């Protein structure tokens, strides 16, 4: 039986970054901050660094996800860089195959393609993306099959009329992302690695991981299930500072439930002055499982989270307003793992 401390030391840690645009900041500064975070976490031996596709959100700069991946891959040398994720129904499968085939050719062996089926935005913006609003998400398996076919090496005879150049034969690992059990089941059936969004859907974590592992069928990609779980983790030198920093994330989710779109807010001293009891309950349902605190509190929180989920990899998300504090949080977490 694996004890909690051994699990902490042996489980790979990775980074989920939303390239946050902070109040008073610029998009260029957001990209520079993501670059600095990628360079730091690479030096700290984090496994991978993913950015996510969102649209019409003034606090997130990673809408053109493939371009941001290129920016980060150019600034690093060993860390895997990828998407957490590309929302496949927003795109032609051919275009994604070409984009990630290009990235794989530029940065061989370093690119991950995480795929989701949600729009990553609102209904009006989905229409502006030319997404078929009649889609329910259940078309996703067919789109995935099409994408995987574009990546597949082709024999000389009987070739299809449309092929992906770049893309064909590219060795890009495909991950399925989910916040419920739909993609968990599909990832298991296809024998693909699975990444679960526990950082905003904690109530579905246990069920989705069980569905994935129960339905797993070995494939040419994996002989056994591999589940990465994302969590909000904010570490600081004192508990008080960490909880102060976490108020930016709390305000961000409060704005989401109020349908208020704005950059990542600066932290505030008393979050209870900002929300009603009902709003507090909703926010806590979404992010109440976040791990926030000083070194010992975060260490205990991560150990408990890994024991509960039995995650093969932990992906850490930290919506921290101040870049120096954001970098420090990842430093503390890496130090906990090393010791």
TrEMBL record:
Write down the SUPFAM superfamilies for this protein, in alphabetical order. Bacterial luciferase-like (SSF51679)
- Organism taxonomic ancestry: Bacteria, Bacillati, Bacillota, Bacilli, Bacillales
Similarity field:
To bacterial alkanal monooxygenase alpha and beta chains.
Q: Where is the Luciferase-like domain?
A: 23-309
Q: Which organism is it from?
A: Aureibacillus halotolerans
Q: What CDD domains does the database record attribute to this sequence?
A: Flavin_utilizing_monoxygenases
TM ranges: none
- InterPro entries, A to Z: Bact_Lucif_Oxidored, CmoO-like, Luciferase-like_dom, Luciferase-like_sf
UniProt GO cellular component terms: cytosol
Name this protein carries in UniProt: Luciferase family oxidoreductase group 1
Q: Please give one Pfam family short name.
A: Bac_luciferase
């Amino acid at each position: 039986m694996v004890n909690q401390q051994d699990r902490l030391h042996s489980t790979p840690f990775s980074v989920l970054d939303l390239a946050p645009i902070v109040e008073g900041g610029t998009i260029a500064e957001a990209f520079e901050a993501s670059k600095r975070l990628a360079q730091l976490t690479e030096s700290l031996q984090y496994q991978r660094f993913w950015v996510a596709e969102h649209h019409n959100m003034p606090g997130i700069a990673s809408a053109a996800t493939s371009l941001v991946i290129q920016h980060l891959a150019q600034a690093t040398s060993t860390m895997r860089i990828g998407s957490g994720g590309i929302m496949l129904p927003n795109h032609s499968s051919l275009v994604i195959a070409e984009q990630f085939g290009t990235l794989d050719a530029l940065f061989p062996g370093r690119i991950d393609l995480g795929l989701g089926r949600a729009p990553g935005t609102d209904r009006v913006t989905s229409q502006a993306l030319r997404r078929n609003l009649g889609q329910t998400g259940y078309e996703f398996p067919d789109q995935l099959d099409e994408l995987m076919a574009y990546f597949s090496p082709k024999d000389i005879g009987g070739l299809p009329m449309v092929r992906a150049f770049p893309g064909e034969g590219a060795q890009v690992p495909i991950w399925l992302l989910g916040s419920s059990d739909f993609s968990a089941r599909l990832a298991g059936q296809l024998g693909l690695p699975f990444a679960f969004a526990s950082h905003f859907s904690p109530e579905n974590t246990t069920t989705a991981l069980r569905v994935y592992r129960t339905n797993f069928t070995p494939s040419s990609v994996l002989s056994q299930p591999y589940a990465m779980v994302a969590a909000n983790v904010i570490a600081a030198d004192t508990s008080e500072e960490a909880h102060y920093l976490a108020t930016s994330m709390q305000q961000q989710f409060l704005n989401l439930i109020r349908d208020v779109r704005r950059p990542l807010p600066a932290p505030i001293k008393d979050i209870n002055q900002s929300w009603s009891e009902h709003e507090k309950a909703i926010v806590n349902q979404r992010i109440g499982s976040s791990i926030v605190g000083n070194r010992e509190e975060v260490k205990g929180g991560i150990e408990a989270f890994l024991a509960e989920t039995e995650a093969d990899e932990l992906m850490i998300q930290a919506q921290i307003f101040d870049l120096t504090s954001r970098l420090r949080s990842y430093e503390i977490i890496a130090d906990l793992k090393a010791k």
